Amino acid sequence: MSEHNGKIFTPFDGLPTAPDVKLLVERYGVPEPGLIPHAEISALIGIPWPSARYTTVTNVWRNKLEQESNLLMRVEPGLGIRILDDRERAPFLKHRTFGIVRATRKTAIRARNIPTEKLEPRDQAEALHLQTHIAMMYTAMQNGAKALQPPKPPPQLPRAQA
pTM for the complete prediction? Predict the structure, then answer.
């Protein structure tokens, strides 16, 4: 069990992130593009960096700002969290997308290499289903860009003002 703000939590409850995220929102609001050092964030929320708790709290904060204020943030290892400006957003998303495509390809290869002859009929059907759908997803990713015209860009979401 652990104590957080006077409340006792069991290992199954987890510690709430809301109080720590609230501190970050109150201090930074909608931050301007630039780097916020890990040490500064760590001192503010009272959680040591690097730690799993620090990562959890900052991920919740980053997701909150992305959803509410249309801000993208990137962790710069060893330095801090960078709030991306408009010119940094497309390369960041491109890098993320290529990572997803690579991961899907690796999954397709692993699924294809499952030795189904040793499996029970029910497990063979499940493996075949996985192999088929992962292969279809990867093929769609490969061919989609060739077959489709790029979509018209949607209007940009306005940034929230602090």
Answer: 0.62
